[in-house]
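Suppose you are handed only these lines of text.
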Amino acid sequence: MAQFAPCPNCASTEADKQVFTWWGGLIGPALLTHVKCKSCGTTYNGKSGKSNNKAIAIYFAVIFGLFVIPCIAIQILIALN
Ligand SMILES: [Zn+2]
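From them, the structure of the protein bound to zinc ion can be written out as follows.
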């Protein structure tokens, strides 16, 4: 029984769920079903079997927009006062 969709690179169904990643911490990989192929090391979406690269970029952009930009804006406001 395959737990995850086959690897987009080598079609292996043996993959490990990624619990923590540099780009998404604990929440990102859980949201994107981020898994790593045991055969070739490719990381991908274990649900869709497609690359997560686009989703990671969007996730990163959303996190950046939600947290980093308001922080910079607050810094600027404080500096102006
Ligand atoms: Zn693979």
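What can we learn from it? The radius of gyration is 17 Å. The helical segments are 27-31, 53-80.
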